[in-house]
Amino acid sequence: NYRCRSAFKLLEIDDKFHILRPGLSVLDCGAAPGAWSQVAVEKVNALGTDPSAPTGFVLGVDLMRISPLEGAVFLPEADITDPNTLRAIQSLLPAGKVDAILSDMAPNATGIKDLDHQKLISLCLGLVNLAQSILKPKGTLLCKFWDGHESRVLQNRLKEQFREVKTLKPQASRKDSSESYFLARLYKGK
Ligand code: SAM
User: Fold this and answer.
1) What is the complex's ipTM, to 2 decimals?
2) pTM, entire model
């Protein structure tokens, strides 16, 4: 049982693109209430449920509180854009780095489409910067964005830093017509 229907978006993306597998270490940004983290815990074998496969690691960060989840470490009441959060993340990561950064973050919508779009794009651009400190070379970044005129800016930044960038529109998010995801793979590193 997933905490939120958003789980099905990640499951759908992962079924198609296989971004999560046993042994990987994952940062889940905007993790509350924890459905994506639930999916990640299963897929990376964070609980060691499959003893024959490597054990992964899941760290979830959110502005909100998150109920504990077996197999995941949460950093609640933390703003991903705050430099203190980066330090806390680094201290919690077993190897200091992750294989994948996932973001389903969304700012509180004002209803002003353009403003909401810009706020989310700048959150995503912040993640591209965060990647420099914590994403392993060849790593993956998956981030939600709301369509608008600055999507290209984000897409271009991602194309500079990753060998492959795809735009995804999961069936499960069809109802929210302005919501899409960028899947950026093969991080070039510094
Ligand atoms: N993927 C989650 C799940 O499956 O349970 C749902 C995520 S929800 C759509 C978006 C989350 O992003 C909210 O919980 C919100 O608090 C969080 N968020 C927004 N801005 C943030 C920020 N600057 N730092 C951390 N989390 C943020």
Assistant:
1) 0.99
2) 0.97
